[in-house]
Amino acid sequence: MSELEQAFESVPCVPQGHTLQIGDTYDIDVKMRWADGDSLQHLNNAVYFRYMEEGRISMFYAARVTDSSRFGPVVVHCACDFKKQITYPATIRVRMRLVKLGRSSMEHEVDLLVVGNDGTLDLRAQGRSVMVWMDFEAEKSHPWPSEVLEALATTVNRS
User: Is 57 helix (H, G, I), strand (E, B) or coil?
Assistant: First the structure.
């Protein structure tokens, strides 16, 4: 059994051909830590990128895509437009929406929304991230394995 096959032994069973689709979303709620803010309790601008990273990593862990020394995703682009400040305390919903799926790349629009006490969502930042599936040994991109796309498809919301 190859290292890649072993890495995906724990992936949940999904129907053959069930894969990611443009528009699929993945959400995770993150509590803002007091230390993530400045002296005015505003979320530090670098932490917005950490929350986006938390969304990406959480999506892979939720899909049970385990670490492999040979293959895995790397971030090749990440950007953020700040709309409104976030202040402590806050619960931030990180919403990743698949907008492009290539041979070896995957692009998400990322919304950072503050979750109100009544469940309302208030958009505070929008970003983009691009991941590429890599063959670390060859040091180049590699096509997304169908097992990975099928596993990720089990974690998304689809309307």
Answer: helix
